[in-house]
Structure formats: structure tokens, C-alpha cells
Amino acid sequence: MRKKLLLFLAIVSIGVTANQNASGAQQDSTSVINTKEEKNRNVMLSAESSTSPRQLNIGLPFAGDILILENDIPVVYTFWTQMPTTAWRYDSSIGRIGLMSFQEGALTYGKVGYTVTSWDRTPGRRFKGVASVFTNNFGTLRYDANISGPIGKKGWGYTASIYENYERGTGANYMFSPYLERAEMFKVGISKKYKQGSVNFLYKYADVKTPVFGNYQPFVYKGGGETEEIDGFRLGKDSYLLRDGIFPYYDNNTGEAKMGDMASDDASQNLTNAFYLSGDHSFTNDMKLTYSSMFMKSKAAFPLMYPISLQVVDPDQRSAGELYNYYGTQNPYDGAVQLVSTQYYPQVDITTFIARTELTKKVKEHNLRLGFTYQYYHAPENYHGGLYYQTVEANPRLLDRYQDLSIYGMEGSAPVTQGGLLPSEGTGGFRENTNKKAALYASDDFKIGSRIDLGLGIRIEHQNDKEIRSPYTNEWFNNRDLLNEEFKNNWNKVFTGNIVFKASRNFGFLADATYNSWYNRYYDYPRDANGSVIDGSYQTVADDKDQVVTNLGGGIYWNHGDLFSIVSKVTRIKKENNIASENIVNPANPTEQKNFYPLFYDIETMGWTTDIISQPFKNFNIHFLLTLQNPEYKNYSYSAYGVTYDYSNNTIPDLSKVLVEIDPSLFLFDRDVRVWLSLRYFGDQKSNKPNSFSYKGWWENFGGIDYNMSRNVTLKLQVVNFLDQKGVKGALIGADQITDASSFVGRKIVASAIRPRTIELSAAFKF
Asked: What is the CATH number of the domain that holds 150?
């Protein structure tokens, strides 16, 4: 063992510069007939965070549809305001993890996209322990452990786990907090196995404190997709949040200017208490029942400060008489200033109950399934907002703005900001939701002869909602009456189908279709017979639209043993009746902005994807994925402040038209050592809806060495961004009104930064 360890360290010292955080293992190829799960994707390889799975690009912008399941149950009902990773981690308590297909996610829970699936460990007939420890060059420390075993000899057993995370992110000095995240989770469970099945009870507690949301960074836009760092600010490594964590906001009820603290429990602590009951039972007629349910009481909170991308003003760009002092002082500030928007969601109580049961039975050539889901969710959503100025530097400071009166022939200066905030007639909002959904779904996978495999599925869901909300758009509601609306007897529908035609033993054709329609409500202004707004202040008219996603695909597959397995498909995805809200700045007065809602639009993507996995020689595997797509807005136009904005046929920001993934891995020394890479190319991206800003393409790159030191100890060295790329990505905040970016060339703007090179070391133990 000592020789193996020295050999491992020698290989590392030769110059392995490699990967990411969670799991680097490649998964085996799935059969093309299996539409339930995607197995040749490494779902945990995320370039954004070391604690959350990657999001798979499907030509649609992320809209909260991506799910994480634990024991067949979504870990949260909706990502807003409770983020899934505040209640779930891929740690030693998880026994299995996978990726549910697009069709299966729609059929079981009516969601859009790929769904991460995970199951907690259950006890076996012997004691078993697993543990891991993780650290990186920025000082993050993470450790977790799970133990399980029998209780007596009558099928009873226990499981218990612990998870602790001291997350430093990319090592930024936030000054107001030592950690990007401080998280701890505990699980304890008891199980009973009997002749025909099992019953499992699990309790989960999570305390996740995340005082930092967002990854916004200032840089200089050079035009043509090129960017560069500004002096004194390291992209991806410095903090662009107020150094003391104290931020100003307006109370959405009274309009009173107040101060919040990013590091406080009320602004950053997320608490979860969840109870799971799950099990399975096999009947004598070969029918099998599986069931799972979760009751969860939780608290969720976060402060979100997003710099308005194009509102960075250098001293030579200030308007006449524009003056700044450091907040609360008479000390002048003469540098560049940044306008920042706050969305502050103080801690709220959430109640969630979700249950799922499923019957399966094989009848001749048919694999039949009948399932039922029930979802209950109750939560208030209360958020405050405001606009403030800060300095443009690492760990910026809050500013007061003044107007020099001498330009008007008067003495002195007049304050523009109040309590650090620009004046506002109303910002923030309140609503309290109660959602109830009950659904039946069924599927049949069957064969017609020896050449045709078919799959059909249907889901019908009944939905009742109740909502209490403030209708006072762009106003403080000042304890006025709130709207109280009930939405009953709405129906959501999913239909799926897939076919595989085997032209020969190794070659064939495949096609699939998914139709997913769900009820989506919104509020509008009272309108006259001509459709004109009668009262533009209050949104008092409740209405709804069916939001529809259709996904059609077809292509070929070709399997040639270990040499290669190919699936090549053309797909078309369309998402209709999206409901948007736009915060629009008045072009005649940049300090004035209002919320315009509701706005409706569609999204459409045509794409061609080719997926190849190959083992050209012993101990070497490679996965290659190429996607060519054209994600566009459709029917998207509106007018605000007398200007019409039309995004129809424009490329959706933050989505690339060309995607490439290359994942080679090589086993060495009797398969005790595995060297692997994961390279993902993202082509040019548009960064605002008018498509006037763009970024050049880049590679996300990971690599690592996994060393099985013994049957019970595995070591991993991984490097994120081993090419040490620097740059920015993502949609620009507040840039959707800029149709010509030429005037911003050479100016400072703000976007998200590429994660810097991160060296990570982890160890996993079995005992």
C-alpha cells in the first residue's frame, strides 16, 4: 500500500492539473430503449458550485424547472424561495444517484428538463460505514459520514449520517462573512425488512447559512465578445458585495428606508426539518408497489444584490453636478460608481407535503405502471427592494449621492439618495401561496414483434390554488387590503411517446414526443372593451394561461460493441405562453425604473445532438457529445416609456448554439488509478435580449486522478479550470433596452465571472 501511495503522489507531482468537485466517474451507456434514465452524463460535474449538480442545457433558459429528487420525492416544491441545495447534498448518506430523462421528469412530476435522482442509504445485514473529507486551495473544508446496520435479527435496521461544510467558494474575502456558505445536515432513519418488502422512516435536519448569492463582477467590455479585468479587481476572485454586509432597502409595506445584514439569520439562514416514509411491497401476482412521502417544515431566506450591468459611471461620465460621499459621512468619493438593485427575502416559514406511490406489473410483452402523486405547499413570499450606489472596487462601500446646486446659481448641494437609497414610489412585493396538486400517471413499455419497442405515457393532474397578494404595483401597500383569490379545478396534462425500430441487430431508428401543459396564473390591470388599461396602478384582475412545452425528437442509433455506441437525434423544443416581468429604466431619466407586467412570449429551439461513447482499447473510455441548436425568442415585444422593444427571433441570452463535451478516462496499474478529463465547450453567447452584447466561446475544463489505495480508501485529486481561463459569462442585468452596444466599448459593465482554477483533494473511506 505504501508503494501505491508513493506512486500516486509521484504521478500527481509530474503534473496532473485536473477537475471538479463532486464525482468524476463516468457512467456506463444506457440502452437506447430505456427512456427512464440518462446514464452517460456526469450529473455532478458543475463548474458553478462544488455543492450542487450541473444543469444540462436543453435549449431552454433555466426557469426553476430542474428538479432534485430524494427517495422519489422532490427535495423542495419550488426553488423560489427555498433553493434545493439548502435541503440536499450529494454526500455519504446518498446510496444511489442518477439522472431522470426529459420524458420521465414530465411524466412523474410534470416538470421540464432533466431531473437528478437520489436515494438515501438503507441498512443491510451487516454494519457498514462510509465517510469522506474534502478541501481545496481556497480553504474550503467539507466532511461527512454515514453508518448503517442491523438491529437484532428480525429485519430491523438503522442509518445515521452527518454533513458539515465550511465553504470558501473561490476564496473571495467577503469581510462580513468568513464563508460563502456554512452548512450542516443530519439524518437518522430506521427500517424494517420483511419477506415481501420493506418500510423506511427517515428524519433529515439541515441548517444552511448562505449570506452570499450571485456572482457579479465588473470588467471592461472591449467589443466583439472581448473583455478584460479592471485595475485592482481580480475576476472570479474578489467580492463585489458591500464590505460590511449592511445593505439599504425599502420596507415594501410602509416605504420606510431600512438596513439589512447579509450575514444575519433573517437574511441568510435556511432551516429544514423533513420526515420521509417510504417502502416497497411485492404481491403474489408479481405486482410491485413502491411508495414514498415527505412532510417538511422549513425556513428560507436570502438577500440578492445584483448590480445593474450598464449602470457603472466613471468620473468623466457623470452628469453635471453629480457628487458622491461615502455613506453617512462628508468624505467625498471621486471614483467610478455602480448602481445596484436589491431584492431582499427575509426568512419565511414553508410547509410542504409530497407523496408518491407507484404500481408496476409485467404482463407478457407489456411493462405496465400506474402512479399517483400529491403535492401540498404553503408559503408566504415577502420581499423588499431598492436602488443604491456603491464604489467600483473589491469589497465596495455604500455611497450617498448629492446634486451640486452651484450649477443652478445656488449654494451648497442637495441630497439625491435617502438612507442610501434612490427615491422610489414602491418596490418589493408580497404574496402567500397555498398549492394543492393531485395527479395520476400511467405508462406502458411494450414490444411489437422483435423489431419495435414502444412506450406510451399519460399524466393528468388536478390543481387547486389559493393566493393572497399585494396588487399595488410600483406602490407601497401601506396596510391596504390584499387580494384574496382562489383558483380551482385546473387541469395539467402530460402525454409522452417513444419508439425504437431495430433495423438490424446493432442499428436502428428512434423517435420520441412529449407534450407538457400546465396551469399558470397571472394578474392584469383592469381594461376597457378595447383592451386599454383603465387603472395602471393596481393589478386586480386574476387570469391564467396554459403554459405548454412540446419536445419532438427523432434519429438513429448504432451500437458496435465496445468500439462505439452512437445516438444522433434532431429535436425541436417549444415553450409557449411564458409570462415575464421586466424592470425597465426610463431612457429619459436613468434613476427612474418601473416594473412592467404581464408580458407574454414563446421560446423555440431546433437542435441536433450526437452522443458517442467508446472503448477503443482496454482500460480507456471516452464520451463525446455534440449539440448544434438555435434557441430563439418568439412573439416577444412590448412598449415601455414610449419605446417599443422587440426580441422576436433573437437568440436567448446565456445559451450557446454550439455545445461540445469530451470525457476521456484511462485506468492504470490494475485499474487502481484512473486519470480522467472532462472538457465542455460553450460557443459564442449573446448576453442581452436585443443581442447587442456577446461573449466569445470558452471551454469548461476539469481533470483528475482517482486512486483506489485499498478496498476501503479512495483518494482523488481534481482541478477545476486547469487551463486557468479568465473571463465572464451570463446575461447582463438591466441591458435589455440596449440595441446598440458600440457606445459601451471600453466602458465598465458587470456580468458573472468564470470560476478560477481550483485545486481540490478528497478522500473516501469505507469501514
From this structure: 2.40.170.20
